[in-house]
Every structure is written in structure tokens, then in C-alpha cells.
Amino acid sequence: LALYFHMGEREEKCIIEDIPSDTLVVGNYKVQRWDLHTHDFLESAPGLGMFVTVTSPTGEVLLSKLYGPQGTFTFTSYISGEHIICFQSNSTRFVVIAGSKLRIHLDIRVGEHFLDESAIQAKDKVNEVNIRLENLIEQIHHVTREQEYEREREEKFRKTSEETNSNILWWAIVQTLILISVGIWQIKSLRDFFISKKLV
After folding, report:
1. At residue 6, what are phi and psi to the nearest 5 degrees?
2. Do the domain assignments include residue 23?
3. In a shared domain, residues 145 and 96
4. CB 25, CB 17: distance < 8 Å
5. Which residues face 109 on adjacent strands?
6. CA distance 51 to 10
7. What local confidence, expressed as pLDDT, does residue 51 receive?
8. pLDDT digits (tens, 9 = 90+) for 51-79
9. 17 vs 20: CA distance, rounded Å
10. What is the separation of C-alpha 4 from the centre of its chain, rounded to a whole number of angstroms?
11. Is-contact 106 73, C-beta < 8 A?
12. Do 8 and 84 belong together in one domain?
């Protein structure tokens, strides 16, 4: 996931990531501040830091840390579900002059493990194969976890659909019984009315 978004200096912005359990998440970000003179975003925002907070689906705080104008944060999900990642600047400027916009460039990698090429070059060929093999095994484990999570979601959705269909069927049966009862009551009422008026 690579994106950018705008926010005010005193504002908090959050994104939601659906992440499988036991998955490493690596996020890289860079902050740019709007410059009133050039009417453009400056390449860097010195002295401006970002509070990064990550909350699990159960509300547990997995990460809460202050970083600089650009940085890398990592966390591991313990349960599958929607994790909330929030950003807020540490700007101490007064609200009156803190209307400056910030642009946050964000790149989030879920379950990916990137190889350190310089470390690989320093090793012999056997070690290189071992490192690449370990990386491949990690990626296979991640794909497996992702598939299991998708299976869990599909099963949950199927159960919800079956319950909904069952409820609809019972409601249709109840409506039919009510209509039949009302029809029988109306016929009986009409019959009693005609008998009382000696029309039958």
C-alpha cells in the first residue's frame, strides 16, 4: 500500500488495514509542510515529528511512538482483523498559525521481508542461497497465513448468509400463516354476517 494524504498540523489522521494474524507490518513515511512563500510542499519538514499509534481490532495499543519528519515503524499483528494506524504531528504552534497543511507520503508493506543485498554480497554463494531460501520460506508462511485468514472471513460470511436466508424463510412462513389466518377469519366473519342477515 503506497499513498499520500493531507492533514493539518494539529490534526490526527487514521487509516485502517485488514491484516492477518502473526504478520510483520513495515511502514515508511515522509512528512512535507506547505510553504506559504513558494505555495508548494517543501521536501522536508525539519523539527516536525509524528506520533504513530497502532491499535489492534480488540483495542490493544501495539505501537505508540514519536518519530521524526520521516521514519520507519514496524509492528506484528497478534490477531487477524482491522488494525487502525494513526498519525499526529508534534507541532506546538498556536492553533491560529497552525493551519499549515502537511502532506504525508506513506508506504505500508504487509508480511514482506526484503533482503539486504549488501549483506548477501558479503557472504559466499552457499550463504546467499540459504538466505534466499529462508526469505522464500517466510514468504510462503505469509501466503499461507493470508489464505487461512481469507478462509476464516469466507466461512464467517457464509454463516452470516445462511443465518440471513434462514431468517428470511421463517419470516416468509410467518407472513403466510398470518395471511391464511386473516383470510379464514374474514371468510368466517362474512359467513356469520350473511347468516345473521338471513342472506344464506
Report:
1. -105, 150
2. yes
3. no
4. yes
5. 26
6. 11
7. 93
8. 999 999 999 999 999 998 889 999 999 88
9. 10
10. 16
11. no
12. yes
Its domain, for residue 16, covers 2-111
Which residues, at least 6 apart from 83, have a Cβ–Cβ distance to it below 8 Å?
A: 16, 17, 18, 19, 25, 54, 55, 56, 57, 62, 77
Q: Structurally, how many domains does the chain consist of?
A: 2
Q: Alpha-carbon dihedral of residues 113, 115, 119, 120, nearest 10 degrees?
A: 130
For 21, the 3-state DSSP assignment is: coil
Structural domain includes residue 22:
yes
Same-domain check for residues 162 and 73: no
Q: What is the dihedral of CA 127, 129, 130, 133, to 10 degrees?
A: 160
Within 10 angstroms of residue 83's Cβ, the number of other Cβ atoms is 22
Nearest partner of 53 among 20, 18, 15, 102, judged by Cα: 15
Burial class (CB in 10 A: 0-12, 13-18, 19+), 31: buried
Question: Does residue 18 sit within a domain?
Answer: yes
Gap between the Cα atoms of 154 and 148, Å rounded: 10
* Residues 138, 111: Cα–Cα separation, whole Å: 9
In a domain, 57, yes or no: yes
Indicate if 73 and 30 belong to the same structural domain: yes
Per-residue confidence band for 114, with pLDDT thresholds at 50, 70 and 90: very low
Q: Are strands 70-77 and 61-67 parallel, antiparallel or unpaired?
A: unpaired
